[in-house]
Amino acid sequence: QVQLVESGGGLVQPGGSLRLSCAASGFTFRTAAMRWYRQAPGKERELVAIVTWSDIGTIYVESVKGRFTISRDNAKNTAYLQMNSLKPEDTAVYYCNVKLAREYWGQGTQVTVSS
User: Fold this and answer.
1) Residue 9 forms beta bridges with which residues?
2) Do residues 91 and 113 make contact, with C-beta atoms less than 8 angstroms apart?
3) Distance (Å, rounded) from C-alpha 96 to C-alpha 54?
4) pLDDT at 56
5) pLDDT for 45
6) Nearest CA to 115 among 9, 16, 10, 13?
7) Are 52 and 33 in contact (CB under 8 A)?
8) Rounded to an integer, what distance in angstroms lies between the CA atom of residue 115 and that of residue 59?
9) Rounded Cα distance, 98 and 115, in Å
10) 107 contacts 6 by C-beta, under 8 angstroms
11) What are the CA-CA distances from residue 2 to residues 5, 19, 93 (Å)?
């Protein structure tokens, strides 16, 4: 079955960096666009970034442009989210997502940006 497993979250000071990973299995990873979402306490889940199957096309929410980079390694069935210049407002649970015949989510990884 489809599985998405996120890792790499943690506590970081403002201005710091983290790299999230999403290990995927159970589907043909190289043919699927991959997405990262986040959900902050008391807020709706929001789309952060998308990477196309070929790693050529990327889309970002305005608030992370220039700071976050989404990428993928099709040989490792893994998607990444490099997060630089982190801000307290980036604090959230980050989720990996793929849309196939239905939508699948990982369990999420907590990112906390605080001094």
Assistant:
1) none
2) yes
3) 17
4) 76
5) 97
6) 13
7) yes
8) 29
9) 33
10) yes
11) 10, 23, 20
DSSP 30: G
For the record, the structure tokens of 29 come out as 């990873």
For 42-83, what is each residue's pLDDT tens digit? 999 999 999 998 767 889 999 999 999 999 999 999 999 999
Indicate the Cα dihedral angle 42, 105, 34, 30, nearest 10°. 170
Q: Quick one: tokens of 3?
A: 């599985």
List CB contacts of 32: < 8 A, sequence separation 6 or more. Answer: 53, 98, 99, 100
Torsion angle in degrees (nearest 10) through CA of 92, 94, 99, 103: -70
Q: Which two tokens stand for residue 58?
A: 């990327």
Alpha-carbon distance 92 to 111, whole Å?
6
Measured distance CA(110)–CA(112) in Å, rounded: 6
